[in-house]
Specification:
Layout lengths: L2 E5 L5 H11 L4 H4 E7 L5 H9 L2 E4 L8 H5 L4 E4 L3 H4 L2 H18 L3 E5 L4 H4 L8 H15 L4 E6 L1 E2 H7 L1 E2 L5 E5 L6 E5 L1 H14 L1 H4 L3 E4 L2 E4 H12 L3 E5 L2 H6 L3 H17 L6 H8 L10 H8 L3
Parallel strand pairs: 1-2, 1-4, 2-3, 4-5, 5-6, 6-11, 7-10, 9-13
Antiparallel strand pairs: 8-9, 10-12
Helix pairs in contact: 1-10, 6-8, 12-16
Length: about 300
């Protein structure tokens, strides 16, 4: 009899990647039944998962009473929250701890949590306005404190942020403007393509993964790498401007401006994951099943330019 893995956020980028990867894997699709959780099973993304063989169920992380049936009988849970949906640290923390509590009550054996570094601790308070990182780390700590067997995946910077950053001017030239040096590196990652490749590795040997954190990143690409790769792929030059912090924030909605500025500084000054980032990434990628999406592939996929 196959084991059940409950996947929260199954119609989103990360959860969708996890659900589809398991359903399409010749080995693990026989070992696991995917229970895909969504707030609206009637939407096309939910229907697609059902056609692939998933059990699609309705539940909401903000509604604790709805979670019991979603995790009942599950061996494993993949859980993720979307801070930017509410922009509320309190809401995100409540959603994440609700998932952990439900998993604990159901006797779940493996809790895979999409976490992030605690930036306040990592930077000794130098970057204090990063709740979308810190609350995920706090949820991780909570899940461990209640006795769950926790494995964490920590996604890097989404390629979609690069797509949003590249602008075509009225003169037809492309430009990119960030508040970091050209030598700064960014840990790019494709959540919709590659989250599942990490989780496949975890599920292939759960006992070896419990207690570990895996850095979800293809590579650390410098701004110079981005400029060169864009020109290679498109044949167009990408001009770069390094902005001061206030100018960078002026282009962003006020509710996220300071947080995104500090995210850029986290990458430039603290390698996003901290001083052991390169070593941690090399270790993390050992579990990946398949090939991760490169910067060149991502830029090609963003076209036509």
């Amino acid at each position: 009899m196959s084991k059940i893995i409950t996947v929260f956020g199954a119609t989103g980028n990360q959860g969708g990647s996890v659900a589809k990867s398991i359903l399409q894997d010749s080995k693990l699709s026989k070992e696991y039944t995917v229970r895909a959780v969504t707030r609206d099973p009637s939407k096309p993304a939910g229907q697609e998962l059902q056609k692939l063989g998933a059990q699609v169920v309705k539940a909401d992380l903000s509604d604790k009473a709805s979670l019991g049936s979603a995790v009942e009988g599950a061996y494993a849970v993949f859980a993720v929250t979307n801070y930017w949906e509410s922009c509320s640290p309190e809401t995100e923390y409540s959603q994440g701890t609700n998932a952990a509590d439900a998993a604990k009550a159901a006797g779940v054996k493996l809790f895979i949590w999409s976490s992030l570094p605690h930036v306040g601790k990592l930077t000794n308070g130098a970057l204090p306005n990063m709740p979308h990182f810190d609350k995920k780390a706090d949820i991780e700590s909570y899940a461990k404190s209640i006795g769950l067997s926790v494995v964490c995946v920590l996604p890097g910077a989404f390629y979609s942020a690069l797509k949003m950053g590249i602008q075509k001017g009225p003169d037809g030239n492309y430009g990119l403007a960030w508040p970091i040096a050209r030598t700064a590196t960014l840990p790019f990652f494709s959540p919709e393509q590659d989250t599942g490749k990490y989780v496949l590795g975890i599920l292939s040997d759960p006992a070896s993964s419990v207690g570990k954190s895996y850095l979800e990143t293809t590579a650390f690409y410098s701004v110079e790498d981005v400029l060169a790769t864009f020109q290679k792929v498109t044949g167009n030059k990408l001009n770069y401007s390094q902005l001061d912090g206030d100018t960078f924030k002026s282009f962003l909605p006020p509710f996220m401006a300071q947080e995104l500025l500090e995210t850029m500084y986290l990458m430039e000054r603290y390698q996003y994951y901290g001083p052991e980032a390169a070593k941690g990434l090399a270790e993390s990628q050992k579990i990946v099943v398949g090939k991760l999406t490169t910067l060149e592939e991502a830029i090609k996929g963003m076209g036509p330019w």
